[in-house]
Amino acid sequence: METTQTNLFELQIDDQSSGYLKETARWAKFLSILGFIVCGLIVLIGLGMMFAFSSINTAELAGAMGSMFSAGLPIIYIALSALYFFPCLYLYRFATGMQAALQAGEPVKLQTSFRNLKSCFRFIGILTIILLAIYLLAIVGVAIIGLASF
To answer: Do residues 13 and 21 make contact, with C-beta atoms less than 8 angstroms apart?
Structure first.
């Protein structure tokens, strides 16, 4: 199977576009590092809740709902941190790859950098669609429960 390449009139990056990409890469690196820090804090909060809930006497918890809450909430925090980690990783790879590509002038590094940016947006887009579907199901479920209570 042959692959075709699109030639956009020998597309090249001029100085102004290079400046924009350098600044974008700096901001992307800053935001990704900040995202890694937030991921770590969320994991620490989840682990802290896990240890805090395990030290509380189970009789003090409000029955089955309390024990389910104490076991599930830290796991949800850690899972959300794992979900947030991947867009930050893709963004970091974009930033470092873009900086290296602009310094070395290598099109392969530039291509890899843009592939990571595409992966970042794809991940966030798919996650957004999933969350919107969950919200829609929750709204429909609440509406059905509300109508059934009349």
So the answer is: yes
Structure tokens at 8: 């956009």
Q: Please give the DSSP secondary-structure letter assigned to residue 3.
A: -
Per-residue pLDDT of the chain (150 residues), as tens digits, is 555 555 545 667 888 988 999 999 999 999 999 999 999 999 999 998 888 877 665 555 555 555 666 678 888 999 999 999 999 999 999 999 999 999 988 888 999 999 999 999 999 999 999 999 999 999 999 999 988 887
Domain boundary assignment for the chain: 16-148
* Contact of 27 with 66, CB cutoff 8 Å: no
**C-alpha–C-alpha distance, residues 41 and 121, integer Å:** 23
Name the pTM for this structure: 0.79
Contact 90, 120 (CB under 8 A): yes
Closest of 112, 82, 119 to residue 96, by C-alpha: 112
Q: At what angle do helices 15-55 and 63-104 cross, to 10 degrees?
A: 160
Asked whether 86 and 123 are in contact (CB, 8 A), the reply is yes
